[in-house]
């Protein structure tokens, strides 16, 4: 069974710049465009190309959204001419229904719920209510949680989000449950770490528009792991990835599963709606199957890609070093997180 290995993390030989971007950056746009268009290059030629340095960076400015992503936003129902009017209608709808009381109702905040549901007001409202219902029932995942105290999740390499995007503009959330040690890392800590990543991602306009994708790496998954994955845990995981967060999960990819997966999947399947089942892909150890969805140049080497592994800890370093006093810290503190 592969355990956490400091030696593996030390193979990151490219410099990583920890930056929070809050203004236009044409270089960043060009870089993202190259990443999103990278799948057009042949796999054989990209495998010999050295990967550029990767920045752990939040793209929190609307001005950083590339033109081709804006066109996709328009196709999803986001009309620049009527955007403010739609947001105002959404705000009025929330007040009229009065089924949940969001802690914010400014344009920027409401916009991410509309984007997550293709600018359909009723669907966006249901998402908003589901989000606050989840928060109300799981206060321990938000209130007085110190994100920087979750460093042991990064040290264990159980989960992370790629600092780069795939050819479609998605960030990739990766879980490696087979190396999870339940006696060292609790299920609740996994949820807390996931929520931190989801909330940070929901601050990025590009991610609001494109959503993200998930990879569940089940290599070495054992019965000791399944015993900690109760139906209530399964329901919470689906809520985070599918029904209750203002950021879409465009696809879930299962890789390296074994016979234990069949037992565990029985708990998750009832909570998957028909749309999500259509976006669930089970690849086994066939990385070529995974590459039909995510090009190798946007994947870690362990999945037949070109990138090194990037630890969750690097996102925490970014929060510590670059987010102090920023709008990102303010937004997170309003949710109950503590930075000190």
Describe the structure.
- The structure is a single chain.
- This protein has 340 residues and is of the alpha/beta class.
- The chain has a single domain (13-334), classed as Phosphatidylinositol Transfer Protein Sec14p.
- The protein is built from 17 helices and 7 strands.
- It has helices at residues 6-9, 26-37, 43-46, 67-75, 83-97, 107-116, 121-137, 151-156, 187-201, 205-210, 223-226, 231-243, 259-268, 274-278, 287-291, 312-322, 327-334, and strands spanning 18-21, 56-59, 159-161, 171-176, 212-217, 249-255, 280-284.
- The strands form 2 sheets. The protein has a 5-stranded mixed sheet. A two-stranded parallel ribbon has the order 1-2.
- α6 crosses α7 and α9 (187-201) runs parallel beside α12 (231-243).
- The longest helix has 17 residues, at 121-137.
- The radius of gyration is 19 Å and the shape is globular.
- The model is unreliable at 1-48 (pLDDT under 50).
Write the layout of secondary structure elements.
Elements: H1 6-9, E1 18-21, H2 26-37, H3 43-46, E2 56-59, H4 67-75, H5 83-97, H6 107-116, H7 121-137, H8 151-156, E3 159-161, E4 171-176, H9 187-201, H10 205-210, E5 212-217, H11 223-226, H12 231-243, E6 249-255, H13 259-268, H14 274-278, E7 280-284, H15 287-291, H16 312-322, H17 327-334
Parallel strand pairs: 1-2, 4-5, 5-6, 6-7
Antiparallel strand pairs: 3-4
Helix pairs in contact: 5-6, 5-7, 6-7, 9-12
């Amino acid at each position: 069974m592969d355990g956490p290995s400091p030696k593996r993390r030390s193979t990151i030989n490219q410099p990583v710049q920890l930056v929070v971007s809050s203004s236009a950056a044409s270089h960043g746009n060009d870089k993202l465009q190259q990443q999103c268009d990278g799948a057009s290059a042949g796999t054989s030629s990209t495998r010999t190309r050295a990967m550029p340095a990767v920045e752990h960076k939040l793209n929190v400015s609307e001005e950083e959204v590339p033109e081709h992503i804006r066109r996709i936003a328009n196709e999803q129902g986001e009309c620049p001419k009527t955007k403010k009017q739609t947001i105002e209608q959404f705000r009025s709808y929330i007040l009229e229904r009065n089924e949940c009381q969001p802690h914010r109702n400014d344009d920027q905040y409401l916009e991410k719920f509309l984007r997550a549901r293709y600018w359909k007001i009723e669907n966006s409202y249901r998402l908003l209510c589901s989000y606050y219902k989840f928060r109300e029932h799981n206060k321990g995942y938000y209130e007085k949680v110190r994100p920087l105290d979750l460093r042991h999740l990064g040290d264990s390499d159980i989960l992370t989000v790629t600092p780069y995007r795939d050819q479609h503009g998605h960030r990739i959330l990766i879980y490696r449950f087979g190396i999870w040690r339940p006696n060292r890392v609790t299920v609740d800590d996994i949820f807390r770490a996931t929520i931190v990543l989801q909330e940070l991602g929901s601050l990025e306009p590009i991610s609001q528009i494109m959503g993200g994708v998930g990879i569940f790496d089940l290599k070495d998954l054992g019965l000791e792991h399944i015993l900690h994955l109760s139906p209530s845990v399964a329901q919470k995981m689906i809520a985070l990835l599918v029904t209750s967060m203002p950021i879409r999960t465009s696809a879930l990819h299962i890789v390296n599963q074994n016979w234990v997966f069949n037992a565990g999947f029985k708990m998750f399947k009832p909570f998957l709606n028909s749309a999500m089942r259509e976006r669930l892909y089970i690849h086994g150890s066939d990385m070529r199957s995974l590459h039909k969805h995510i090009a190798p140049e946007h994947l870690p080497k362990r999945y037949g890609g070109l990138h090194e592994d990037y630890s969750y800890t690097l996102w925490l370093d970014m929060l510590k070093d670059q987010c102090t006093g920023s709008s990102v810290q303010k937004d997170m503190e309003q949710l109950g997180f503590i930075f000190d």
